UniProtKB/TrEMBL annotation:
<keyword id="KW-0547">Nucleotide-binding</keyword>
<dbReference type="InterPro" id="IPR017871">
    <property type="entry name" value="ABC_transporter-like_CS"/>
</dbReference>
<dbReference type="GO" id="GO:0016887">
    <property type="term" value="F:ATP hydrolysis activity"/>
</dbReference>
<keyword id="KW-0067">ATP-binding</keyword>
<dbReference type="InterPro" id="IPR027417">
    <property type="entry name" value="P-loop_NTPase"/>
</dbReference>
<dbReference type="InterPro" id="IPR050107">
    <property type="entry name" value="ABC_carbohydrate_import_ATPase"/>
</dbReference>
<dbReference type="InterPro" id="IPR003439">
    <property type="entry name" value="ABC_transporter-like_ATP-bd"/>
</dbReference>
<protein>
    <submittedName>
        <fullName>Sugar ABC transporter ATP-binding protein</fullName>
    </submittedName>
</protein>
<feature type="domain" description="ABC transporter">
    <location>
        <begin position="265"/>
        <end position="502"/>
    </location>
</feature>
<keyword id="KW-0762">Sugar transport</keyword>
<dbReference type="InterPro" id="IPR003593">
    <property type="entry name" value="AAA+_ATPase"/>
</dbReference>
<dbReference type="Pfam" id="PF00005">
    <property type="entry name" value="ABC_tran"/>
</dbReference>
<feature type="domain" description="ABC transporter">
    <location>
        <begin position="6"/>
        <end position="242"/>
    </location>
</feature>
<keyword id="KW-0677">Repeat</keyword>
<dbReference type="GO" id="GO:0005524">
    <property type="term" value="F:ATP binding"/>
</dbReference>
<comment type="similarity">
    <text>Belongs to the ABC transporter superfamily.</text>
</comment>
<keyword id="KW-0813">Transport</keyword>
């Protein structure tokens, strides 16, 4: 079949003087998995919004199965078999799997009553056709993330979708769940479904995609078969030659294991029953210690105890040589601990508020003058932070929800840097950000380290760990099994330890 299932021709979109997308051609064939990659702000989101009908282009046209479609109409694109699975779930967590699959279009019988028997039969037939197994009666909110993704896939396929756009589908999945999702994608491919796979994880692009489209500055820069591309070439096309060189150079920055030698955070035999046990380590001023391991190794749970969100059952924590037992995050903040959580949308930022409001949220009390807020001082602090972190656009009044993922993450990091913490904890600090933004965040963290900050990073991205860490700790099933100087250990050794027994 020579006709693409979906095709964009000369697509453009402007917002006043800003060009978000320019003269973009894009097509996906039946049974093709096409990776769509590019830095934040490259135009991917605008292209996807046009293809799903959420936004009308200012120029160009869209064809589905060779027919030109009405632009800017989501219901028309759904009717034509185009569906999008977003990074953040669009499911109703309290409702069952079956009801989510057919939400708003349940089959009905006489007198308009929902035909539950037919609904169940249709759901079972759909699962059998696509090799997906789910408990139809389970509440979606009780399912693991990978199973929720499968519910979203079935929900789209129940609409007879033949084009699936997947936006960062594996951001919070474990390595095993990523493999499972990729198996599902290959099954859809064999059934002739066209898949657009949007991801910052280049390893996934090379693993599951047949072809790739690379975007930069609102334009399609390159299209190629995955088998004909190399990772360095992809990075260069995504971010430009200079930033690609900067990103590669970041891995060669000299390490500082042990930092200044001053122990800023000391943890001894820390245990939370049935979660983690006997965890001991020192974090020094002027160093970055990365804790890595599989999802489920209880790294995040350990961080929650350090930040006072949960209590340990035994063991000790000292900050600057003083024993602490934080009973809440507020106490931890007062004790010099900052915490950048994994999910910036759910736990880190107030998306509807401005950059300025988010940047000063953790330090608002410092701007109180006689029970009133000093808005001039707040604006000045925000302006300095935006400049220091190179947040784009540099407009403190802009709502955070309107920023790219990388710039949202910089706002979140800046919020905690403004606290001036003695210890800064970051949980998966670059999930969902592109190569260029990662390099910028690494530079920010190194600059803080060089000023004497003690930085503790949790990351399951081994390339990130090997690039960023001064020392590397490995956690397996609730046990800290090894700590290495980053320059003295290979990735193969770390991978072997991660897969070992606790």
């Amino acid at each position: 079949m020579d006709t693409p299932l979906i095709r964009g021709i000369g697509l453009g979109r402007t917002y006043g003087a800003l060009t978000a997308l320019a003269d973009a051609d894009f097509a996906v064939m039946p049974g093709e998995v096409r990776g769509l990659i590019g830095s934040n702000g490259a135009g991917k989101s605008t292209l996807i919004k046009i293809l799903t009908g959420a936004v009308a282009p200012t120029s160009g046209s869209v064809e589905v199965k060779g027919e030109t479609v009405r632009l800017g109409d989501p219901s028309e694109m759904i009717r034509r078999g185009v569906a999008c699975i977003y990074q953040h779930s669009n499911l109703a967590p309290a409702m069952s799997v079956m009801d989510n699959i057919f939400l708003g279009r349940q089959p009905t019988g006489r007198f308009g009553r929902i035909d539950r028997r037919r609904q169940r039969a249709d759901a079972q037939a759909l699962m059998a056709r696509h090799g997906i197994t789910l408990d139809l009666d389970a509440a979606v909110g009780t399912l693991p993330t990978v199973k929720q993704k499968e519910v979203e896939i079935l929900k789209a396929l129940a609409l007879d979708a033949r084009v699936l756009l997947m936006d960062e589908p594996t951001g919070w999945l474990s390595a095993a769940d990523v493999v499972r999702l990729h198996t599902t994608i290959r099954g859809l491919k064999a059934d002739g479904v066209a898949i657009v796979y949007i991801s910052h994880m280049l390893d996934e692009i090379f693993t599951v995609c047949d072809t790739m489209t690379i975007m930069r500055d609102g334009r399609v820069i390159a299209e190629a078969k995955v088998a004909e591309m190399t990772r360095p070439r992809v990075i260069e096309l995504m971010v430009g030659e200079k930033l690609a060189r900067d990103s590669a150079a970041a891995a060669r920055v000299p390490r500082r294991p042990g930092g200044t030698g001053e122990v800023r955070l000391q943890v001894r035999d820390l245990t939370r029953t049935n979660v983690f046990r006997d965890v001991s380590f020192d974090l020094h001023a002027g160093e970055i210690l990365c804790i890595t391991g599989l999802i489920g190794s209880k790294r995040t749970e350990l961080m929650h105890v350090l930040f006072g969100a949960d209590r340990a059952d035994s063991g000790t924590i000292e900050v600057d040589g003083r024993p602490v037992a934080f009973g809440s995050p507020r106490e931890a903040m007062a004790g010099g601990i900052g915490f950048v959580p994994e999910d910036r949308h759910r736990d880190g930022l107030m998306l509807g508020l401005s950059m300025t409001e988010n940047l000063v949220m953790a330090t608002l009390s410092r701007f109180c003058r006689a029970l009133l807020l000093d808005h001039r001082a707040i604006a000045a602090r925000s302006t300095r932070s935006i400049a220091e972190l190179a947040i784009q656009p540099p407009d403190g009044t802009k709502a955070v929800r309107l920023l790219s993922g990388g710039n949202q993450q910089k706002v979140l990091v800046g919020k905690w840097l403004n606290l001036g913490p003695r210890v800064l904890i970051l949980d998966e600090p670059t999930v969902g950000v592109d190569v260029g933004a990662k390099a910028e965040i690494y530079a920010i963290l190194r600059a803080e380290r060089d000023k004497g900050a003690a930085i503790l990073v949790v990351s399951s991205d081994l390339e990130e760990v090997m690039t960023l860490a001064d020392r590397i700790a490995v956690m397996v099933a609730g046990r800290l099994v090894a700590i290495h100087d980053a320059e003295a250990v290979t990735m193969a050794r770390v991978v072997d330890e991660i897969g070992g027994a606790a």
